Amino acid sequence: MATTSDIRNGLCIRYNNDIYKIVEFLHVKPGKGPAFVRTKLKSVTNGKVVDNTFPAGRKIDDVRVETHKFQFLYHDGEFYHFMNEADYSQIRLLEAALDNPGLMKEGEIVTIIINSEDNMPLSVDLPASVILEVTHTEPGVKGNTATNATKPATVETGASVNVPLFINEGDKIKVETTKGTYQERIKE
């Protein structure tokens, strides 16, 4: 058993007869009244996101997990297939277990969190950022740069990312995986 002081991003807990992963949390100590922890929880079974507030010091039921490095192999329309880097065993997961599957390209190394009690995969954590090639984007219009103007671009995985106007087809860009946002252009 853990308490609210042990809450951190990525912690898996048992709550309302389901297993949730903590996506965001904030310890709040108001001037008047007791402290509390505001959390955003994502269900690892159906992907549903729930906001919840725990009073400070409350006991929470954490789930013992192991992390393993897996390589993303391919997507067959229904399942995403991964191979364990240590023993070359393969698993397949539904899209609900993945946070941002549109940013994964074949061969990408990801971390899969596995429940150590029943060896069931709980969630897939992508690297903090990925480098993808822009396959389609409209050309930028000159003189349209009074503010931080962006345009949609399709990357090699099929995902759409808003990029600055100077990005062209064939450019490689770094994309933050948690929010799916453009970070920088990669020079070659």
From TrEMBL:
Domain spans labelled Translation elongation factor P/YeiP central: 67-122
CDD domains cross-referenced by the UniProt entry: S1_EF-P_repeat_2
GO CC annotation, single: cytosol
GO MF term (any one): translation elongation factor activity
Gene that this polypeptide is encoded by: efp
A Pfam entry, by short name: EFP_N
Domain Elongation factor P C-terminal: 130-185
SMART domains, sorted: EFP, Elong-fact-P_C
Pathway: Protein biosynthesis; polypeptide chain elongation
Chain ranges passing through the membrane: none
Keywords, sorted A to Z: Cytoplasm, Elongation factor, Protein biosynthesis
GO biological process: peptide biosynthetic process
Compartment(s) of residence: Cytoplasm
Name of protein: Elongation factor P
Cross-referenced PROSITE patterns: EFP
Family stated for the protein in its record: Belongs to the elongation factor P family.
Reported function: Involved in peptide bond synthesis. Stimulates efficient translation and peptide-bond synthesis on native or reconstituted 70S ribosomes in vitro. Probably functions indirectly by altering the affinity of the ribosome for aminoacyl-tRNA, thus increasing their reactivity as acceptors for peptidyl transferase.
